[in-house]
Amino acid sequence: MNRKILSALMLFLLLPASYNACSQSPFSRSDSGSSSDEVWTASAEENVTTNPYALLSAEQVLKSMSSVTNTPVNGAITNEYNSRQSSLASDFDLKEVTSPMLISITNLAGVVCNETLKIEMAQAQNSRRLFSSIDFSKSVNVITDKSYDDTVVRMSSAFWGRKPSSEESQVLSSGRGEFVSALSANEANNSSSSKNLMLFLCTSMLASFDSYSF
User: I need a labelling partner for 194 at 20 to 30 A (CA). Which of 101, 130, 203, 205 fits?
Assistant: First the structure.
């Protein structure tokens, strides 16, 4: 993945994080009096019971990414998955979340999104499932707020099964601003900048917590 895109993605690795202020964070232990062993269990069934979040396994992550993007698992995706599989979760326990795991998920999501973009960019604009609001023949400077927001909603519905919260929309909007501001004048005026922004957006959302948990 382009180094500039990957660097920007590190700021949004845990998106979305719009949990209810009264609810328990998926990364914190329960204060209900239960023992650590009861809360941090490797069993998916018990994990769902004691904590509202559990992780997808490595194979489930791959299948989910392929399914929600409607992108077949090809050679490029398989190669990336094979190189990252050992860093992905081996069970459902939230203790499996590590920095190497998050980086691996981000890289895998980046490859899946890149293949998704290849597929959709070859289609007529009004036939695209996720990127029908984006004119890839023009630079990132031409992408309007409406087009960007429409793409966010389309991917949110596909990847998360819901519309983005106001907080998530704001984070993704800020991400767009930071991504574009990091481009040189020549990069921003090049039509490839539109694809790179969409790769950044897609990867951010596909690598988010909602995409590898249940």
Answer: 101
